[in-house]
Specification:
heterodimer; A: mainly alpha; two-stranded antiparallel sheet; two-stranded antiparallel ribbon; 12 helices; 4 strands; 72% helix; 5% strand; B: two-stranded antiparallel ribbon; 2 strands
């Protein structure tokens, strides 16, 4: 028996002929498929469902009972579409989920800390007029910046999940005991805390440099109240040096993030960490040498005509990048020695 | 009251057991479906005829499972498909490809060896 196109009103509970209902089911399914697949799946499903219904009718069922049985066995059209797509029905899989949660927690903590420090400084600076409005802007900043950060972290992890190459999977599948790191050094709790603080301070530095640059300065008090702030950094040339400083801090953030995420250090991880640290220090030092981001008028703004202070400030600004370079070299050297021990 | 509690708890346990069993059977069957499908496609078949063919031999497969599976196998290169007109209706026919035949032979070998091993293990355990 062939399915008719007639409208059997007595039995048409869902409304429409059998063919119309098949068409509705198929359309609902292909709606969730990519355009290039739709025509093909539409044609095939329609023909096949018609045959299944005819078979049920030949076994003695009424048209609509047959249709009901067939569509019930096919299941929810959305689920059927998912089967056609065979897609990953999640954003972040189990392999990255806990790392993702950890990164979100660290970043949110650092953002809250950073904005709280900025809020505290603002309150100190102008307690009476800004308290209420600052408090609301502080809360809304935490929510807004926090949401943005979570969104970006989620996007990055989702991309990693989607574009994870098969080579990585092959590497995981082909793993053997010989692939165990030769010199495995378990990361101590002390080192983890150190790296966590590093992440928090990097985010704090990024936040302060990019949103509260004017607050980074020497606070001049008069009668127990802050009278003015003399910026430590040269705000007029900030567009020149700030992007490089941001990149440098981002590298140190990645380095600390890697240290937090690694359960142990093998030579590869140690190499990557040292590489990021080297790039960060090099960029930092170069930025300070080439752009001289310190405020050249700081000494004269604090005490006009004080030659001693002017000389001191000059020495500090000239010596600062080399001091950082020395610290960086010592730190990296110390790490190299401890890694090879 | 005690009787009711026993019945309710007993029913719950039975439900859970059935649920676990259903899940395990599904997992067990899932791996063998592809082998069964490949075994039947030496000659071209359309999905409906394949369902009937498998059902006649005692293997029931849901149409909603089969259609997407056939597409996936085709995308993997294990099946070829063509559209033909039958009784003035276009139908999509599937047939095993050369690559599919080679994969099927390997799978069959694996299945026969696995079947033998598992049967041996089960029989030893039951003895």
């Amino acid at each position: 028996m062939v399915v008719t196109q007639s409208n059997d009103n007595a039995n048409n509970k869902p409304g429409g002929t059998v063919m119309e209902l098949i068409e509705r089911y198929v359309s609902e399914c292909i709606r969730h498929l990519p355009t290039k697949m739709r025509d093909d799946v539409h044609q095939e499903l329609t023909v096949e469902l018609t045959h299944l219904v005819e078979d049920e009718i030949n076994s003695g069922a009424s048209e609509h009972m047959a249709l009901g049985n067939v569509l019930k066995s096919m299941g929810n059209p959305r689920v059927l579409a998912d089967r056609y797509l065979d897609k990953k029905a999640y954003l972040i899989g189990p392999r990255y989920y806990y790392t993702y949660l950890m990164v979100v927690k660290i970043v949110l903590l650092a953002i809250t800390l950073g904005l709280s420090v900025a809020f505290g400084i603002r309150i100190l600076f102008d307690f009476e007029t800004l308290l209420l409005s600052s408090f609301f802007s502080y809360i809304s900043s935490i929510v807004m910046v926090g949401l943005q950060a979570v969104a970006w972290i989620t996007i990055i992890f989702t991309l990693i999940e989607r574009f994870e190459t098969t080579e990585i999977m092959d590497e995981i599948d082909d793993w053997s005991i010989n692939d165990l790191p030769k010199s495995k050094k378990t990361v101590t709790k002390h080192k983890k805390v150190e790296s966590l603080l590093g992440v928090a301070f990097s985010i704090l530095a990024l936040l302060l440099l990019n949103t509260q640059l004017d607050l980074l300065g020497v606070y001049i008090f008069a009668q127990g109240q802050i009278q003015s702030i003399v910026p430590i950094l040269n705000m007029e040339t900030a567009t020149d040096w700030l992007p490089w400083l941001n990149i440098s801090i981002l590298f140190i953030l990645i380095k600390n993030g890697l240290q937090v995420a690694s359960a142990y250090y093998d030579r590869q991880i140690q190499g990557i960490i040292l590489f990021f640290q080297f790039i960060s220090i090099a960029l930092f030092v170069l930025t300070f040498v080439l752009y001289q981001p310190f405020n050249p008028l700081l000494a004269s703004s604090i005490a006009l005509g004080n030659q001693e202070l002017a000389n001191l400030w000059n020495n500090v600004t000239q010596g600062f990048p080399w001091f950082i370079l020395l610290l960086g070299i010592l730190d990296m050297g110390g790490q190299l020695i401890s890694n090879n021990r | 009251v005690i009787y009711i509690i026993i019945v309710v708890i007993g029913g719950e346990i039975m439900d859970q057991t059935t649920l676990i069993l259903d899940g395990l059977i599904l997992e067990l069957r899932r791996g063998t479906l592809i082998l069964s499908i490949l075994s039947q496609l030496n000659h071209k078949e359309y999905p409906y005829s394949l369902i009937k063919k498998l059902s006649d031999q005692g293997l029931d497969i849901q149409a909603g499972t089969l259609y997407p599976l056939l597409r996936r196998l085709e995308e993997q290169g294990l099946l070829d498909s063509t559209w033909d007109l039958v009784e003035n209706r276009p139908r999509r026919y599937y047939q095993i490809s050369n690559q599919g035949s080679s994969v099927y032979q390997q799978l069959k070998k694996e299945w026969l060896s696995l079947n033998q091993t598992i049967t041996q293990i089960i029989n030893q355990e039951e003895r």
